[in-house]
Amino acid sequence: MDVKIDMISKIVPREISPSSDVPSSYLVTCDLQYLEYVELDVLLAPNACDIFSDRIRHNAEGFAKVGGDSIRLSRDTLPPIQTVRDGVAGAYQGRSWFLPQDRYSHVKRGNFATVEHNHLKFFRDLLGENRVLANSSDCQAYNVDWIRSVRGYSQCVLKPKTAQEVSEILAFCDKHRLAVCPQGGNTGLVGGSVAVFDEIIVNTALMNKILSIDEISGVLVCEAGCVLETLEDQLAEKDLMMPLDLGAKGSCHIGGNISTNAGGLRLLRYGNLHGSVLGLEAVKANGEIMDLLSTLKKDNTGFHLKHLFIGSEGTLGIVTKVAIQCPPKPKALNVSFLGLQSFENVLETFKLARKELGEILSSFELIDALSLDVVTGYHGLKSPITDYPFYVLVETQGSNVAHDEDKMNKFLEMAMKTGVVEDGTVTNEDSKMKAIWALRERITDGLLYDGYVFKYDLSLPIKQFYGIVTEFRERIGKDAVRICGYGHVGDGNIHLNISVKEFTQDILKRIEPFVYEHTSQLRGSVSAEHGIGFRKPKYMHYSKTESAINLMKDIKRIMDPNGILNPYKVLP
Amino acid sequence: MDVKIDMISKIVPREISPSSDVPSSYLVTCDLQYLEYVELDVLLAPNACDIFSDRIRHNAEGFAKVGGDSIRLSRDTLPPIQTVRDGVAGAYQGRSWFLPQDRYSHVKRGNFATVEHNHLKFFRDLLGENRVLANSSDCQAYNVDWIRSVRGYSQCVLKPKTAQEVSEILAFCDKHRLAVCPQGGNTGLVGGSVAVFDEIIVNTALMNKILSIDEISGVLVCEAGCVLETLEDQLAEKDLMMPLDLGAKGSCHIGGNISTNAGGLRLLRYGNLHGSVLGLEAVKANGEIMDLLSTLKKDNTGFHLKHLFIGSEGTLGIVTKVAIQCPPKPKALNVSFLGLQSFENVLETFKLARKELGEILSSFELIDALSLDVVTGYHGLKSPITDYPFYVLVETQGSNVAHDEDKMNKFLEMAMKTGVVEDGTVTNEDSKMKAIWALRERITDGLLYDGYVFKYDLSLPIKQFYGIVTEFRERIGKDAVRICGYGHVGDGNIHLNISVKEFTQDILKRIEPFVYEHTSQLRGSVSAEHGIGFRKPKYMHYSKTESAINLMKDIKRIMDPNGILNPYKVLP
After folding, report:
1. Do A398 and B359 touch (CB under 8 A)?
2. Are residues B300 and A571, on separate chains, in Cβ contact within 8 Å?
3. Does residue A392 share a domain with residue A282?
4. Complex ipTM above 0.90?
5. Cα separation, A248 vs A264, whole angstroms
6. Count of structural domains, chain B
7. DSSP class of residue B114?
8. Does residue B151 belong to any structural domain of this protein?
């Protein structure tokens, strides 16, 4: 069976047979959808092929087979790759024929009720006909995550417009033991925002009003279904910006960003959502509306409950409104690209950057020689600097063009004078900045020309940031085509890549579980920013102790005693 | 009965009768202790006198009487006031004769066990003789908060050195139903860190090791009993600083800062502790050690539990270790002082400051005319600018002296050109900056010359920031000596002051509960940064909904089912 891809620009399967879970033929046409992160890949294996993202690597073998046939793709049909700001949007196609019960056979449906006519009647009375989707084809798009890693078979999608409606829905579901899957823009990478079985999907798309933008304090208050890019556009008119930026910004909802504690491209500079979210409103499983929608910077009256809803991926409540502290829009941008002789020098340079660039440092990205080799080799990009074992990309964002340029120049001067940096270039020209960023962003898609790539997205203490690459070079050696590392030094977030000619169980066993154990021993994180969702609960113990997981379960129990909210997700 | 004060420089009562709760005479000599906040006042009432802080204003009448006698102080014995960085360290003296059961008679001792010999034996076996204090005079200092607002009668103070010891203590106490009061530097202002009755005090003073300072990432890891100033000093050697700064930094423990979500002077610039604390270790009531001591910026593996311990004031666990992201130490400081015609112009100026000063803006403080009048009148300070209804103090902290000066000048130029600011002065000379800060810092202690001052520390939405002052001018009018407002515009935190010649119930009734209701209606906070502790649970409902309070109680129940941790505190 062949799968053809005409065009990639957004993930909209044009034709998937609605009548069967395992259709016999496909013509899938996709449009490009930006990823919020670099880790989605297109991989072309030597013979039969897989197209899959790093996120679903563990199921790669499964993906290669459909109903006993291999999906075949020639090199010619390899989909085009389009670079994005901080990564590569990869291509994949309608994998929706893999129902979770096939791939995740260990997961059993919970003891929940099944949606019946009287339930639908209640929802229609509450929301009207148009905001209750209850036939298979209408529900289809809501049942599949956009990387097609999980597909449920929900027969009921609800689109509330207010927290009050969400409240009545949840109270009803709780009473009738109906499982619920909260869903925002459905851009997550761990299957957290789609049904696993037949959960009722509560989609926030129609809760999309901006309630206020305070130009003076910089506080934005809006409903959870607002699309991140829409907020960014509205704020820009007032010289403000969102404190977070993601590749998925054109689709993702702010409520989902908060529920997943989305990281993104501005974290080094503007911090995480636990710092910038001033308040929120969320509905608990029993329908209770938790009004925590403070717009205050200081409020020490009792436990700080809002944080329970930030990053718990919809398992403790559905976020319905948010208040966010927005920084002023920067007026100046500078990018430099540096060559260094050792990882120790990279660290010294980072220290110097923190000191000299101080408040304007916005990115500090590492690229090792074998990573740069990917983009100069396969993509034919030109690097302004060559022949170093390490390269660093430094970006500044500030409020004054001349000052920022001056700071950057002084930083470079000192870095070169002390010898930690041997060569470097700097620019504030838009095209040149983009060209430098491409050296970082296109590594991911270039790597796939090596063969099969084992990819890991890890947070590690900064001193041990690169050690894991060296470690694997010792462990795997020449059995790999390439073992390289690149990533956000500033955030301690490395992308470890081990490419081989062909996937083998033997290589996998030499990598896992060692990579997780090693990360765990260094107190690192096995999921830096994508969360746990449906696909990673079994890895949580590598980054969280049993006590912590037990406390999470205790909290789940009191906030959602019937377990109706996003079951099968997050908690192991 | 007279109370004499020889010297104020630290709060160490030299002589308080150890044998009686109501001694008949006093000679109290104090050393100055910096406050972490402006709100502690010395008040000289016209006849009999009170010396009290705003924090205990509600009990002011009680303080005026000791055993039927008024405490008398002539103007001459009014203690000297010493200004501190962001406020005034006030004086007070041995009020330890007011046991909580006198002043807080509505609070009843919980059904806890009483410390017995076999309990003490267990503690001595665990910690040794020296780290178990068990006689009245040894325990005395630990039983009283430093503003003498609450005094317990604990007969057992424990000084563990490790989390393991804390764990064994709590497991034992939980098993034997012994109530526990966690205590850090005991610098809180709401009575949260002292025993109310006979709770066992677990003091963190000996858990004071700095475990690591990573110069590259700026991550500090240390034990909970480290004094903030010690950390600041150690970090300074590595060109780093703590992301928070408090007046109480010479005494307060970082564990207490985190447990109370301390705000302080750098919040506008460096954000709150929910953003800068990367991880922590805490011991639950049952002795379970929660290892959440991540040093990572990105870790989305499950619920973000650390936030439960930030700001819950020791009621959910005892923080034993912390990991904090520390910013680089600034190299440049600038201060300007501006005159403005309206509060609207203040807001416009704040907006302009956010835009032009951007990343280097570190303080934006409002002083209204009647507030400035206090320091120029009573204290004889000279203001560089006069005859405006509103004044603003703007401070910058940055990494480049010339750039910051340039930005500040450009900001001032634009502010004057558009007319929002009518007059202004700017300086980076240390003595001049201090002189300008004194205009802001000395308002609090100057106000007491008016008579009796009703003081409120509120967070309000920025647009309604000053409205409450106008509101009270209409409500109280000429019955007050002065109704003024000043505070942190940048953080939405105003200090409302209503001074009268003499305290009367009538005036009180015209102020309260209106001031709380008004704050509540505007979704403000009735405790901006000091927390709830022992003294404010009854006000929590003005800033938190019933649902939120119920969820707090649910969480308390699962994390401390026997309620042994800091009873009588926080939860209403």
Report:
1. yes
2. no
3. no
4. no
5. 10
6. 3
7. P
8. yes
